[in-house]
Write a structure and sequence with these properties.
The chain is built from 10 helices and no strands. The protein has 189 residues and is an all-alpha fold. Helix 1 crosses helix 2 (17-39). The two termini are 33 Å apart. Mean pLDDT is 78; it is low at 97-105 and 182-189.
């Protein structure tokens, strides 16, 4: 495993696009969650910031010889870009957002936001393993905050069928995380 990681890092430093793709696939979703934790309702901007972070990583690839440094760089660049966006004249004019003073100070919750983003990605990976109907029910329930009645209407199924699919999905997810000993999952269910 260690040999494989050192090979990926060496290929990345040498400019191999396949190595960049490995890091992109590994970090894009957690970084997107992380950016959205700052930008709240500005999902397109969060996505653009994450993509820009990977461009900056690629431009600086020769400076990285350790995966932890790559990860730290991506989170720092993403956070700084989010703060810059929130503080920009464009954002103030178009989105009427105010940047809280304490956000510019050192962020003691930054690490917690990073962990939360990575946890959400772990949950999303497990949700993608569920049967399609259960995925849709979880998506509508947890990501779109719809009630069982609204889900029933949207998916054209009875409320009982929605409830059964929801219960099975949650049960499957709990088992998956329990087997991984991922106790943090319980905070979000």
């Amino acid at each position: 495993m260690c040999n494989r990681l050192s090979t990926i890092i060496a290929n990345f430093q040498a400019g191999d696009p396949a190595a960049l793709e490995i890091y992109f696939n590994m970090y894009k979703r957690p970084l997107h969650y992380f950016a959205k934790s700052f930008l709240k309702h500005h999902a397109p901007e969060a996505e653009e910031i994450v993509l820009d972070s990977f461009v900056k990583l690629w431009q600086q690839r020769a400076n990285f010889n350790d995966e932890e440094k790559i990860k730290a760089f991506l989170y720092i660049v993403t956070k700084n870009a989010c703060l810059s966006f929130l503080n920009s004249a464009y954002a103030r004019q178009h989105f009427e957002t105010e940047l809280p003073d304490d956000l510019l100070a050192e962020d003691p919750e930054g690490h917690a936001k990073q962990i939360k983003a990575e946890l959400f990605e772990m949950i999303a990976q497990e949700v993608r393993k569920l049967p399609e109907t259960q995925q849709k029910v979880i998506q509508l329930s947890h990501y779109e905050n719809k009630s069982h009645s609204e889900i029933s209407e949207a998916l054209q199924m009875s409320k009982n069928t929605v409830y059964v699919n929801y219960s099975r999905a949650i049960s499957t997810l709990k088992k998956a995380f329990k087997s991984q000993k991922d106790w943090l999952f319980t905070f979000f269910m």
